[in-house]
Description:
There is one protein chain. By secondary structure, the chain is an alpha/beta fold. Helix content is 44%, strand content 21%. The chain has a single domain, classed as Rossmann fold (3-Layer(aba) Sandwich), CATH 3.40.50.150. Strands 3-2-1-4-5-7-6 form a 7-stranded mixed β-sheet, with helices on both faces. The mean pLDDT is 93.
Amino acid sequence: MAVVPYKEEKTSKKVQVARMFDNISGRYDFLNHFLSLGIDKGWRKKAVNLLRPLKPKRILDVATGTGDFALQALLLNPEKIIGIDISEGMLDVGRRKVREKHLEHLVELRSGDSENLPFEENNFDAVTVAFGVRNFENLERGLQEIFRVLKPGGMAVVLEFSKPRKFPFKQIYSFYFKFILPKIGRIVSSDKAAYTYLPESVEAFPDGEDFLHILHHVGFKHTQCRSLTFGISSIYIGTK
């Protein structure tokens, strides 16, 4: 059974996730950095740096949200970055950031479905996803779409939460994630479901070797997983 934000509703996961992010979009960036103690910024930088040898010119950022990863990828000196997301609320915040930095000629944020990408195949040198794949309604379908739009030799870089496995960090993290984080998120974001959904979606996500297996199954080669900060999150890479 799929993990969804609003369990009492009968709508699809995709519809619920879009509404959830619309609801929390105004406080999302603050909460993201606050609840991760700012560590998420370093995670994004490490993920982007893995693309440096590729020197990608066209980059697609799937589940771009407020555009943090897309903006981080400007360090690679690409010709164009397109971000896509199903939440208009998140995209509005991201577009405001792009305008404030006068980067409209480099970064374009569009509304779109990660499981039905509106691009031709073999279109991008690199595709990135930060904290978005666990929100896909159909994980394999979303990864197939990423594979489809990548050029041969192109690379996908996925940054996602994972589950620490070593004592005592596993226990400390679990307590924080399940009890402290939802309470803070609830107070600041005013959406009771959003930060209960977060630990539940991480718990249900097939991380580590399980995710590498799915990447390989949809066609990716040279797949790797790099654990970050005691296993709180992981960077996955795969080449077409």
